[in-house]
Amino acid sequence: MKIILNSTSFLLPNNESWSILKKNNNISFSDYGNINSPEYIKDTIDLEIILFFLPDLIDYFQSDKFNHRLELKKISNIIKLIQQKLKSKNKKIIVGLSEYLYNNVINFSKKVNFSKKIKNYFLDELYKCSKKYNNLFIIDLDNIFSEYGYNNCFDQRNYYVFRCRLSTFGIEVVSKNLKEIINRINFTNKKVLLLDCDNTIWGGVLAEDGIENIQIGQDGIGTAFSDFQKSIKKIKNSGVLIVLVSKNNKSDIEDVLENHKSMILKRKDIAVMKVNWNEKSDNIKQLSNDLFLGLNSFVFWDDNPIEREKIRSRLTDVEVIEPDLDITGWPKQLLEFRGFSKFLVTKEDSAKTKQYKSREKFIEAKRFSRNEINYLKNIKIKPTIIKIDKSTINRTVQLCQKTNQFNLRTKMYNASDIIKLNNKNTCFLVHLKDSYGDHGIISFICLKIVNNKFLFIDTFLMSCRILGRYLESWILNEIKKLAIKKKIDFILVEYIPTKRNQVAKNFVLKNNFKKISKEKVVNYNIFFKKLIDENANSEFYTLPKDAIIPNLEIYDKSR
Amino acid sequence: MTNLDNKIIQALKKTFPKSEIPKKIENLKIGDLKGWDSLGHVNLILEIEKIFSFKFGSKIFLSLQSIKKIKKNLPK
Fold first, then answer.
1. What is the separation of C-alpha A536 from the centre of its chain, rounded to a whole number of angstroms?
2. Is the C or the N end of chain B the one with fewer CB within 10 Å?
3. Which residues of B touch A12 (CB under 8 A)?
4. Higher pLDDT, A524 or A320
5. Could you read off the pLDDT of A323-381 as tens digits, one per residue?
6. CB–CB of B40 and A161 under 8 A?
7. How do residues A422-432 score in pLDDT, each as one tens digit?
8. What distance lies between CA A326 and its chain's CA centroid?
9. Matching CATH topology for A2-186 and A347-558?
10. What is the pLDDT of residues A152-199, one digit of tens each?
């Protein structure tokens, strides 16, 4: 990633403390005090980081003579500048903000600290922007500094000698936290938490101690296990699947989940139970196949160091947590674990466990059914087309950012892109219900009419958890109906290959789209479809020599 | 070579990875190595502080422009 770092303070470019951030990234620093990137570099960078230290903007020594309105005006102007930068949607921006607190417990015991007021205003405005612009990320630096100690992170000598507000340790801390946000921008979060049972979600060994003697809910250590389960539940509600991987008798564990009064986790919270006497690594491999999830989406939490070592050596992609030696540290450790964190949590996330469970049942039942079509008829699939509006935009963004498999072009649109697309083109979402439950919004389609001749499918994506229902054919049929209504003869589809979207290509080929040769449309894998006379087996339509191929490259840029 | 020298060489190597550090560092000063400009100098002093777990005062920080001076001001 090409990164530029701007700050109101001098921040020691080339110092060793930036090494964490420099790994795999190409970073340049603007001149000290300049929060604008130099012109020559502006268009080439992927990420701009701007770090603000309030005393660089406001004279803390004159706080008694403050004109608050003027100071707030200053901040508003900075916000305007940031908004300007945000309009270039290909660039991500991280804004960090520190109040650089001068603490005086007596002065601020009756009235609010002036710098706090300004900082809160600044933060509020930034968060308002982040609702509008998906490419903005905010770090409250003071929260981070307080974790490591304010006095360790700042250095007065450094400031007066070479204008750097931070100590080298402070820079390291900033570097590390920026890296975490960048990692989440580039890589999706973990999706499955694999948990052992004995001495992990409760204290004691069930087979030896019996259900009445396991530690959960009692004073002391039992409360720590309860809080650990509460943390697990919180993570589950953000869309993570909880899987029990335990060497035990399944019925014993089910008994605890269903009948132990102090258990916070219930059977319904557990997406899958891999409770048997097989090797845990074999269970996990099988699970990865069943859930269509790569091993790098899995996190393993087990109190037993031998089991942890086995997973580490056999399944190198699984993240194995080294739990705190004392269980009392676990609830905090789990909540602070960044692997599961994501920027936004939607309504669909909290229903994820239920949806995966119903998918499991669906696959199982389909496997045993003799006639697939009849079976699909029996489960009463009911897709509904719904509009994109305020209530569905977050889910649309999430679908764009997360759908890797059934996605023709994998365009990572943000909220403002989608609003623009929706204003100019035909966009819709598909909501799905069947006898396995309400699957929520699982598809986003965007269609663009080009030269009044072609209906170009800008976006066709579907969540992988509902695959196998031929919903894609239903959607394609809806698209055809729309094309006929608008008197358009051709549907244009582009397939941009990624590592994981082969299934989308299969769909294109299966539906007899005719490929346009690469020489005609450079860099694009475009497929063509003739709508009329479809039954006459004329789908392999030959492109006439004088046919106008819409210049998609230009279209893409001007959108 | 003293232990003190070894530690300073370590700091020089880390701060100026593109330069070859001579074995005798006694007479080295700012400008003698590639990257040892005023910014490189600040980074070098901060690295030395880290290695020795010691902090130079603001009064002398910018005057430590040679290895001799740095050694003189490090705790014995």
1. 45
2. C
3. 39, 42-43, 46
4. A320
5. 999 999 999 999 999 999 988 777 777 777 887 777 777 777 776 776 666 777 777 88
6. no
7. 998 899 999 99
8. 31
9. no
10. 999 999 999 999 999 999 999 999 999 999 988 888 889 999 999 999
Query: Given this model, what pLDDT does residue A19 score?
Result: 92
**Cross-strand pairs, A299:** A193, A319
Residue A169: which residues within 8 A CB-CB, separation 6 or more? A17, A148, A152, A153
Q: What is the DSSP letter of A528?
A: E
Q: Smallest CA–CA separation between A6 and chain B, in Å?
A: 17
What is residue A528's predicted lDDT score, i.e. its pLDDT? 53
Rounded to 10 degrees, the C-alpha dihedral A478/A481/A482/A487 comes to: 160
| Candidates 3.30.1180.10, 3.30.465.10, 3.10.180.10, 3.40.50.1000; CATH matching A192-340 | 3.40.50.1000
Quote the Cα angle for A125-A126-A128, to 5°: 65
Distance CA A106, CA A490 (A): 75
- Residues contacting residue A404 through CB under 8 Å, at least 6 positions apart: A410, A464, A498, A500, A501
Q: Which of A13, A16, A162 is closest, CB to CB, to B47?
A: A16
The dotted CATH code for A347-558 is 3.40.630.30
Q: B interface toward A at CB cutoff 8 Å?
A: 14-15, 35, 39-40, 42-43, 46-47, 50, 55, 57-58, 61-62
Cβ-Cβ contacts under 8 Å between A and B: the total is 26
Owner of token pair 């190597």: B13
Report percent pLDDT > 70 for chain A: 90
Domains of chain B: 3-73 (1.10.1200.10)
For residue A543, give both structure tokens: 């492109």
Q: Is the pLDDT of residue A103 over 70?
A: yes
Which pLDDT value is given to residue A291? 79
What is the least distance, in Å, from the CA of A107 to any CA of chain B?
29
What is the model's pTM? 0.70
SS (H, E, C) A75-107: HHHHHHHHHHHHCCCCCEEEEEEECCCCCCCCC
Architecture of domain A2-186: 3-Layer(aba) Sandwich (3.40)
3-class SS letters over chain B: CCHHHHHHHHHHHHHCCCCCCCCCCCCCECCCCCCCCHHHHHHHHHHHHHHHCCCCCHHHHCCCCEHHHHHHHCCC
Would residue A394 be called left, alpha or beta, if left means φ above 0 and alpha means ψ between -120 and 50 degrees?
Answer: alpha
Closest CB to A16: pick one of B14, B55, B62: B14
Domain boundaries, chain A: 2-186, 192-340, 347-558
Provide the sign of the torsion angle of the four alpha carbons A480, A483, A488, A490, taken in this order. negative
A464 contacts A405 by C-beta, under 8 angstroms: yes
pLDDT tier, A541 (very low <50, low <70, confident <90, very high otherwise): very low
Placement of tokens 């004329």 in the chain: A538
Residue A416: the pLDDT is 84
Query: pLDDT tier at A558 (50, 70, 90 boundaries)?
Result: very low
Mean pLDDT across chain A, nearest whole number? 85
Residue A69's contacts (CB-CB under 8 Å, 6 or more residues apart) are: none
Q: What is the pLDDT of residues A447-486, one digit of tens each?
A: 988 877 788 888 999 988 787 778 888 888 888 888 888 8
